[in-house]
């Protein structure tokens, strides 16, 4: 990569970072290209040249965000720690993420093209990774082997469908979102007792 390409990639990264910070604080609809340009220290024309439109920039921001989240998940997945610790780390990461993203951001993700990006990422990357983690849990004796893979997949799909509709969770407080994560992993009974 030559100097021009490096500078271009650095500008694009700066734009994506600025856009994510503004979107996650105020929501996509409330943030203008001019505000993103100012925060990224570039001209609005540069944003249009690199991304074409606000919609395309939003898609790029969300894709990068999901890829970063997947890298974090895979790092946890490959750690040499007991399965319950992996689950706790995944939950902790989700809790930290919930604290950093406003409900306005969740509410503003209504564009069908952006929802398609989220859906594709969920089913092509997140679900297979979660299934691998579930298999680790089964092999190490932490997940009930009596529960079929089909039931687990259905459970994931129900949960995923719910979180893909921001209007369902947009008015919930952050503790409720954290509680949903706890329910997702531990159910209503809670964490198993240590005998």
Q: What would you say this structure looks like, in words?
A:
The chain contains ten helices and no strands. 76% of the residues lie in helices and 0% in strands. The chain has a domain at 58-186. The radius of gyration is 19 Å and the shape is elongated. The mean pLDDT is 80. With 195 residues, it is mainly alpha-helical.
Largest sheet: none
What is the average per-residue confidence, as pLDDT, rounded to a whole number? 80
Q: How far is the N terminus from the C terminus? A: 58 Å
Classify the helix fraction into a percent range: over 70%
Domain HTH tetR-type: 9-69
Protein name: HTH tetR-type domain-containing protein
GO molecular function: DNA binding
DNA-binding region: 32-51
Features of this protein?
single chain, 195 residues, mainly alpha
Describe the structure in brief.
It is built from ten helices and no strands. With 195 residues, it is mostly helical.
């Amino acid at each position: 990569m030559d100097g021009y390409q490096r500078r271009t990639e650095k500008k694009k990264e700066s734009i994506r970072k600025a856009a994510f910070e503004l979107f996650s604080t105020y929501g996509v609809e409330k943030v203008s290209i001019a505000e993103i340009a100012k925060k990224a220290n570039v001209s609005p024309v540069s944003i249009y040249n690199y991304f074409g439109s606000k919609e395309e920039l939003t898609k790029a921001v969300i894709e990068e965000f999901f890829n970063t989240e997947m890298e974090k998940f895979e790092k946890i997945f490959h750690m040499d720690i007991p399965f319950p610790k992996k689950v706790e780390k995944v939950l902790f990461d989700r809790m930290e993420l919930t604290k950093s993203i406003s409900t306005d951001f969740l509410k503003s993700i209504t564009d069908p093209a952006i929802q398609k990006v989220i859906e594709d990422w969920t089913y092509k990357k997140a679900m297979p990774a979660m299934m691998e983690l579930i298999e680790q849990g089964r092999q190490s004796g932490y997940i009930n082997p009596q529960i079929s893979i089909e039931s687990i997949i259905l459970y994931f799909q129900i949960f995923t469908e719910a979180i893909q509709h921001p209007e369902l969770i947009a008015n919930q407080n952050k503790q409720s979102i954290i509680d949903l994560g706890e329910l997702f992993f531990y159910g209503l009974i809670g964490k198993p007792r240590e005998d």
